[in-house]
Structure formats: structure tokens, C-alpha cells
Amino acid sequence: xxxxxxxxxxxxxxxxxxxxxxxxxxxxxxxxxxxxxxxxxxxxxxxxxxxxxxxxxxxxxxxxxxxxxxxxxxxxxxxxxxxxxxxxxxxxxxxxxxxxxxxxxxxxxxxxxxxxxxxxxxxxxxxxxxxxxxxxxxxxxxxxxxxxxxxxxxxxxxxxxxxxxxxxxxxxxxxxxxxxxxxxxxxxxxxxxxxxxxxxxxxxxxxxxx
Amino acid sequence: xxxxxxxxxxxxxxxxxxxxxxxxxxxxxxxxxxxxxxxxxxxxxxxxxxxxxxxxxxxxxxxxxxxxxxxxxxxxxxxxxxxxxxxxxxxxxxxxxxxxxxxxxxxxxxxxxxxxxxxxxxxxxxxxxxxxxxxxxxxxxxxxxxxxxxxxxxxxxxxxxxxxxxxxxxxxxxxxxxxxxxxxxxxxxxxxxxxxxxxxxxxxxxxxxxxxxxxxxxxxxxxxxxxxxxxxxxxxxxxxxxxxxxxxxxxxxxxxxxxxxxxxxxxxxxxxxxxxxxxxxxxxxxxxxxxxxxxxxxxxxxxxxxxxxxxxxxxxxxx
Lengths: 210, 319
Prior knowledge:
Chain A has helices at residues 16-25, 31-35, 55-61, 71-76, 106-114, 124-133, 149-152, 167-171, 191-196, 198-209, and strands at residues 8-11, 41-42, 47-50, 66-70, 83-87, 93-100, 117-121, 138-142, 158-163, 174-183, 185-189. Chain A is an alpha/beta fold and 210 residues long. Chain A has a six-stranded mixed β-sheet with strand order 2-3-1-4-11-5, sandwiched between helices. In chain A, strands 8-7-9-6-10 form a five-stranded mixed β-sheet. Chain A is elongated and about 60 Å long. Chain B has helices at residues 14-33, 47-51, 78-88, 132-148, 162-169, 174-185, 189-198, 203-211, 228-232, 234-242, 245-248, 289-292, 306-318; strands at 37-38, 44-46, 62-64, 70-73, 96-105, 117-126, 154-159, 216-217, 251-254, 267-272, 281-285, 299-305. In chain B, helix 6 (174-185) runs antiparallel to helix 7 (189-198). The mean pLDDT of chain B is 94. The chains are: A alpha/beta (210), B alpha+beta (319). The interface between A and B is medium-sized, with 23 and 24 residues.
């Protein structure tokens, strides 16, 4: 266990390296975590690693006291009972609506002529709420893999996805039509740990804020 | 043959039932010795009667009866007991003390310790104002948890009127108050910071609005310098003075504590145990609620989730 006495859920993927840098700033040695690709549980330093979208699950249940994940994940899982404590600033991405390049926008054209736009996404709740809030009818198609494929094959007219640099979109001849929200990495806490381990959690927040 | 049951409900078989029964019997003993008489009310009520509570949890499951009236399954026992007090005890001398063991129904994402149908055990103390009534409820709460054998529990104690009082003291515009309260209720401190920085209050006030909801710990939390924060924690200080040491030691003062139910007017509390990742139960003061049903009496109460209590006990046993 680390000096804070906190179990920390660390996301693998794009947020992994900057999160471990933040862990180092807390004075927790992340060397073993960096060196080991397959291992998931590092009890000596109180770290568990997982997919970013699993972080809220572990933190909500108290299997981890605190965790780091993207705002995109928190938006998609808004019913999770966790405290959102700090915007860590890194891992900046934008949730966008994109469609095949050219004029007119196939998404807008589908809405105009057919009344409904089909939208592929890994973020069905974020996408549903965005089209609802903007007063447009959408048929949300949930996919697990590369979303970019869906508009290219005619499965849908638009996608809702997260993009950092826009390279993947461009390579697939897709252009951003709307920006829904900017997502950065967030520090979250279990609601009970936030009370029972208040002092340790406040120290973590203070160090990461500085 | 396998026959399904609705999502968020479950069967209880004898081994588990025996353990649950041991918990509820221990609780019943404490409630009874403390002078709380057990009541039961219908699980299903007229929706318009439940909605008189305003602001609280809206009933999630509704049906029509044979006259076309809308019936609803209760979301908690506090609202039905407020109705019961106004209806069955229109003139009885307060304070009135009731306890209950009853199922409530909520539209939630079912997971461990959170079913759509769940058993609550609790008390309502009607006609006993703050701070004495609040202190009595906290004493009964701790005696109940001691009686079931829970060891590591703590009680988070906050005040639902605290943050609104601060917002009023700092002349925060009404529209902005709703946004701030929403961020607090959804426990989004990043959102709270964004909304607070948007206000045109002074930097010092903004810092206080961000710092206060994060203040939690021992009685030192209540030691604010004279000013709006000190005024706002006055109610909690008064409660603390009435608590016996054994209860006061369990309390974590939490100036950011916000409970989801809308009818709380003063002290609010949540019960935590290190063996469970979610609160075991909670309660608070609802001084306006009984009045909405026609008899104006201050009141306080708490409810414990019996399943969660069971999970916490099992967790403590495992260590």
C-alpha cells in the first residue's frame, strides 16, 4: 500500500503515461507499473490498472478509493455515484459529431429529407442526449470497434466520437461538424472514502492541483 | 422450470433471512425501548397524495385503479408517515415517535445493495424541533447500529440549509444558486468550481464557496471565524453540544453533505462503514413536510437499508 493508504484506479490507454507521471508527483513509485504490461494489481503501491471506462465501476463500489478517468467516460456513465474532485488537465480530447467530407453534410441531409439521422458511436448516452438537447431525431447505433468505418459503409450518416488531433477522422475522409464537449482527465473518489479517508484524499487533491 | 422475477427485485431464502431477521430484531428492540411505536402503511398510495411532499423523490412505479385514479408505490416511508400523522393524529400532543420496517421502491440501476424494491428500517420523530430532536435521532441511530454489532461505522452530519444560507449571504443571483446546488448535489466539484468562478462575487467569497463543501472532519470543522460560515454552522454546534461522547465520537461533520431527497430543511446525516462503498442509510430534518399534509410540526428521522447493513456486517466479519 502507498503512503496515503488509498487504492488508486489507474486507466490504461492514452491516459496511462500522464497518469503515472501524476502518481510519481504524489511520491508513489510507479516504476513497477510502467515496467509491467500484463500485471493488473500492484498491491505494494496501492494501484490497480484497468480500461478507463471501468474506473467509475471500481470507484463507485469502493474496490478503489480514488481513480483517474476521462470526462468522456463520466459523461457517458453519469448515473455513477462518485465524487468528481479535480480536473487534471491532461488527456484533452473533444467529443464531436463528424460525417463524410463534402457539401451538403450527409447528416444534415438525412435529417432534412428523412427526418432522422443515423449516428454510430461508442458513447450512446452522450450521443442520445446531444441530439435530444438540440431537438433533432437520431437513431443511435452502438458499435464497439472503429466508429469511422460506419459512415464509410453506409451504415450511418454521422458519428459521435472522441478525437484528440483529428488525424484518424481526416484519414477516413470525415470532417467535424459539431463539437459537443471538451474532455480531460478527472480525479474521482468513492463517496464513502471521501468521508472516511478525507485527510488522505485532500492531500492527494492538493498535491495534484499544485 | 425457471420463472424470472422483475429486474431490481430478489428472493430471500432461509439462511439469508435468518441473518436479516437478526438485524431487524436488534433494531426493533432499540426502537421499542426508545419509545418508537411500529407502524405500517400501504405500499401503494394515491400518487397525488405522495406528490404533496413536493421536491422529494418522485414515485417511480404507477398504476391506474378501477376508478382511473393513479396509484404509486412509495419511494420511502417518510412521506407516508407524514400523511399518517396529519390524518390519524390531527390533535395528539407532540412529540410523536414512530418506527417502521417496510419496503420502498425506486427506479435505480440495480446493483449490489441497491435494489428497486428494498427493505428500510427507520424512525420518525415528529414534533421535536432542533436541536433536541436531532440529537435524539442521532442517539437512537448510534444505539441501533451498536445493537446490530456494526463496529467501524461513522455518521456524516451536515446541514441542508448551510450552503443555501451562504449563497444568500453572498447575494448570489437566484438562477446561479440553482446551478451551484445542482453541481453540489451531483458531487461534481469541477463543475462547482467552474460555476463559482463565473460569479461576480469577490475572490474571498468564491474561495469560501469552494472550500466549505470540502470541509469535513471532527468538531474543528465547526470552528469558523465570525462571519457567514460561522452563522451557517450554528445549528450543527447546537446539536453537538447535546450529543453524548459515544455518539459525538462517531460523527464526521461534513459541510458539503447533500442528500438527494428534496424535503430536508436542516441537519442531514449519512451512515458510512469502511466495509461498504455506499452509505448504509441516512436521514435528517424535514420541518416543512408534515405541514404540507395539514399539520405543521417539525420532524426528523432516519432510514437504514437493511440489505446494506447486512453487507457491511458481512464485510466487517471478513475484515
